């Protein structure tokens, strides 16, 4: 056992998994950039106060924050999510609205590590600040939906709810408080602690002893003002217009105290219920103000990479992409020829690798096979003398004899181009 290993909940993402991660981020970027979203890259670390605004009834703030005092006596934290950072950035830079941004990258939460739950984990997400329109809610939800579709996932369920206007929500919270107070004896100890802070969050409990009390709790629908009801209806109609199926789930409340109106969650149909949330989001007000900005409407979502990839594995979609090189150069004359040929091929845009340490022909050919390249370009002393190189297709149809051939050294690029076209055709035939 080596002296040092990754700390609990932290991982090295190695190839080929890392290529899958990168492609996940690239697919997400292409979906949202095509809808006018620009990338924001907030810092990994912020003033602790930025994240305290997420709400002190959330586990993220009370238990999971990686906070510490830095050498300048500042109380800072590694970001547990990115919505608060986006709102802080909006307040700091005052961009034109609507401000449509997306992000992608790691967050940190001190959680108990388990399958699909880590202390450093990646999310992708979008936020729109400064617009209040039910069709924006539809756009945001539709982009999440489209992303899953682009990954190839089929078994994703969209759950939808509205928390109403702030006054509706306040009246509802009061009714819930009374109801849960009356029934607190039947709640788990954890839920009683949550109840003291925020009765809405009790609805979030996935602990089975709480289920019966939650099932009989008052429902938000009875508290909607006419505007909230109209907004919610327009969101539903918009999703129907886009043929996006959804289920209304009145227990779906988001952790943030600032959430209002639309909330939603994407669930993976193949995952266990305790952690089937692939991602979620909603509309929020007041977060920008709490960070010192003007009153600003916001909506967004965050999607977890790990669970989404678990869902992809379950559905057999979105495998790690093939990142093999096109060409592997084998040089038995000491390595300088390989240096030149590799540089020439890379200059022309071919992904090219080579062997080092002047190994035997056999060892270099083995490395060529292992590299996954389609072609080997081989040079030995005979070839140097004759001004040629050997081209050898590496992925020949099974049973076919090796069909390597000599080409003049100065026709390398055009010959290799033709050979690659042929090899790709054969590989995909
Ligand atoms: P949240 O920001 O808590 O709403 O989480 C949004 C999504 O991020 C979840 O649905 C998960 O897919 C993912 N997520 C949250 N926490 C973790 C974690 N500790 N490890 C891996 N993924 C996470």
Please characterize this protein's 3D structure:
With 429 residues, the chain is α+β, with helices and mostly antiparallel strands. It folds into 2 domains: 17-165 and 224-315, Bira Bifunctional Protein, Domain 2 (BirA Bifunctional Protein, domain 2), CATH 3.30.930; 327-427, Rossmann fold. Helix content is 39%, strand content 21%. The chain contains 16 helices and 16 strands. It has helices at 17-33, 48-52, 59-62, 83-93, 134-151, 166-182, 189-197, 199-202, 211-215, 226-241, 287-290, 305-315, 336-347, 361-371, 381-386, 412-428, and strands at 38-39, 45-47, 66-69, 75-78, 99-108, 120-129, 156-162, 247-248, 259-268, 277-285, 297-304, 327-331, 352-354, 375-379, 388-393, 405-408. The protein has an 8-stranded mixed sheet, sandwiched between helices. A 5-stranded mixed sheet has the order 13-12-14-15-16, with helices on both faces. Helix 1 runs antiparallel to helix 5 and helix 5 packs parallel to helix 10 (226-241). The model has no long low-confidence stretch (mean pLDDT 94). Adenosine monophosphate (AMP) binds at residues 81, 109, 111, 116-118, 121, 123, 277-280, 302, 304, 306-307.
Short account of what is shown:
The chain has 429 residues and is α+β, with helices and mostly antiparallel strands. The protein contains 16 helices and 16 strands. The radius of gyration is 28 Å and the shape is elongated.
């Amino acid at each position: 056992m080596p002296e040092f290993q990754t700390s609990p909940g932290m991982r090295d993402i190695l190839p080929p998994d890392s290529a899958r991660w990168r492609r996940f981020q690239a697919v997400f970027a292409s979906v949202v950039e095509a809808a006018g979203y620009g990338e924001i890259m907030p810092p990994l670390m912020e003033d602790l106060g930025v994240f305290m605004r997420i709400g002190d009834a959330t586990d993220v703030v009370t238990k999971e924050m990686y906070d510490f005092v830095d050498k300048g006596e500042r109380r800072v934290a590694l970001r547990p999510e990115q919505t608060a950072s986006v709102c802080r950035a909006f307040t700091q830079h005052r961009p034109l609205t609507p401000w449509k941004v997306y992000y992608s990258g790691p967050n940190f939460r001190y959680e108990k590590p388990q399958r699909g739950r880590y202390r450093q984990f990646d999310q992708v997400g979008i936020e729109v600040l400064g617009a209040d329109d039910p069709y924006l809610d539809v756009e945001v939800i539709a982009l999440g939906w489209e992303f899953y579709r682009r990954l190839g996932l089929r078994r994703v369920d969209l759950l939808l709810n509205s928390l109403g206007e702030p006054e509706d929500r306040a009246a509802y919270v009061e009714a819930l408080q009374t109801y849960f107070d009356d029934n607190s004896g039947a709640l788990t100890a954890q839920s009683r602690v949550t109840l003291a802070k925020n009765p809405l969050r009790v609805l979030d409990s996935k602990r089975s002893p709480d289920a019966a009390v939650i099932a009989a709790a008052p429902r938000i629908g009875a508290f909607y003002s006419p505007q909230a009801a109209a907004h919610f209806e327009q969101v539903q109609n918009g999703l129907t217009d886009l043929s996006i199926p959804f289920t209304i789930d009145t227990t779906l409340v988001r952790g943030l105290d600032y959430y209002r109106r639309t909330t939603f969650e994407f669930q993976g149909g193949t995952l266990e219920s305790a952690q089937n949330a692939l991602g979620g989001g909603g509309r929020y007000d007041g977060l920008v103000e709490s960070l010192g900005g003007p009153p600003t409407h916001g909506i967004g979502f965050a999607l977890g990479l790990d669970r989404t990839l678990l869902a992809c594995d379950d559905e057999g979609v979105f495998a790690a992409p093939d990142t093999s090189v096109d060409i592997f150069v084998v040089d038995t004359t000491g390595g300088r020829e390989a240096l030149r040929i590799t540089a020439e091929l890379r200059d022309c845009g071919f992904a090219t690798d080579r062997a080092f340490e002047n190994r035997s022909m056999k060892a270099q050919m083995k490395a060529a096979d292992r590299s996954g390249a389609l072609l080997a370009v081989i040079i030995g002393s005979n070839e140097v003398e004759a001004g040629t190189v050997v081209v050898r297709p590496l992925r020949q149809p099974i049973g076919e004899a090796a069909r390597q051939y000599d080409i003049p050294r100065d026709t390398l690029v055009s010959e290799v181009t033709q050979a690659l076209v042929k090899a790709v055709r054969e590989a995909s035939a």
